[in-house]
Amino acid sequence: MIRRSAHAVKLAILDRDGVINQDSDTFIKNAEEWIPIPGSLEAIARLNHAGFRILVASNQSGLGRGFFNIDALNAMHRKMRRELSVLGAQIEAIFFCPHAPEQDCQCRKPRPGLFRDISRRLQIEMSGIPVICDSYRDIQAATSVGALPLLVLTGKGRKTLSQHRDDLTGVPIFDDLAAAADALLPT
Ligand SMILES: [Zn+2]
After folding, report:
1. Spacing, Cα 105 to ligand 1 middle (Å)
2. Per-chain residues with Cβ under 5 A from ion ligand 1
């Protein structure tokens, strides 16, 4: 069980690709390619039912690179929300960076812009908030705002673990979102 700091609200921030849905080296470009990782939607439902508000914070540089447009992204998110609603689950808000890397924005993780945005919009301190992710850049972004990164081994997670093992001291590691979620739930 992960002990959250005493003042932390019941909120968890999830990366999307490689955490909720299967990732692809060629980007997730449309709703058909958006395929949930087994057990991930049920894990969000368990968190919801335990009183957690769930947010998504996701780099979507495929927009800035021109691989898909905002209509396609909205269709992916409609599919995600529809499949969650069947389980009585919901994501409160989806924060995404639409920029390509060369646009040098402040929101593309590992920069902290998305988390600062969440903090401002929800009037919530990021300190101790669990951030469930599969990439080292997500861990860097979460750490830089004082959040609590949890690494899952789905998506890029195994690669992250092998490439950054020495930098992951103190970062809890789980097989997948289902296992990470269970660690956040009261026993
Ligand atoms: Zn951005």
Report:
1. 5
2. 97, 99, 105, 107-108
Output the CA 1–ligand 1 centroid distance in Å: 33
CA of 64 to the centre of ligand 1 (A): 9
Question: What's the pTM?
Answer: 0.95
The residues annotated with a catalytic role in the active site are 15, 17
20-66 pLDDT tens trace? 999 999 999 999 999 999 999 999 999 999 999 999 999 999 999 99
Mapping DSSP onto H, E and C, the string for the chain reads CCCCCCCCCCEEEECCECCCECCCCCCCCCHHHCCECCCHHHHHHHHHHCCCEEEEEEECHHHHCCCCCHHHHHHHHHHHHHHHHHCCCCCCEEEEECCCHHHCCCCCCCCCHHHHHHHHHHCCCCCCCEEEECCHHHHHHHHHCCCEEEEECCCCHHHHHHHHHHHCCCCCEECCHHHHHHHHCCC
Question: 2 CA to middle of ligand 1, Å?
Answer: 30
